Amino acid sequence: MTALTTVAPETAPNWGRIALTLFALGALVFLVAFEQGALTGGAPVLHEAFHDARHLLGFPCH
Ligand SMILES: [Zn+2]
Fold first, then answer.
1. Cα of 24 to ligand 1 centre, how many Å?
2. 50: domain range?
3. Which pLDDT tens digit goes with each residue over 7-19?
4. In angstroms, rounded to a whole number, what is the distance separating the alpha carbons of residues 56 and 9?
5. Which helix (H) or strand (E) element contains residue 23?
6. Which of 5, 15, 20, 25 is the most exposed place for a label (fewest CB within 10 A)?
7. What is the Å distance from ligand 1's center to 56 Cα?
């Protein structure tokens, strides 16, 4: 009879996944709140889109 061996689960934090998640969250906050046209050639297309989305959701912004 052979003994079954089990592998201990990985307990160390997955730093790569944590770093990627933090970067993605930071990029999302930048796009939603601070992007003023730097990524779209000067036209604040993303800014206006998120601004309109806030109004559609009834979020008071001004
Ligand atoms: Zn507004």
1. 25
2. 35-62
3. 777 788 899 999 9
4. 46
5. helix 15-29
6. 5
7. 10
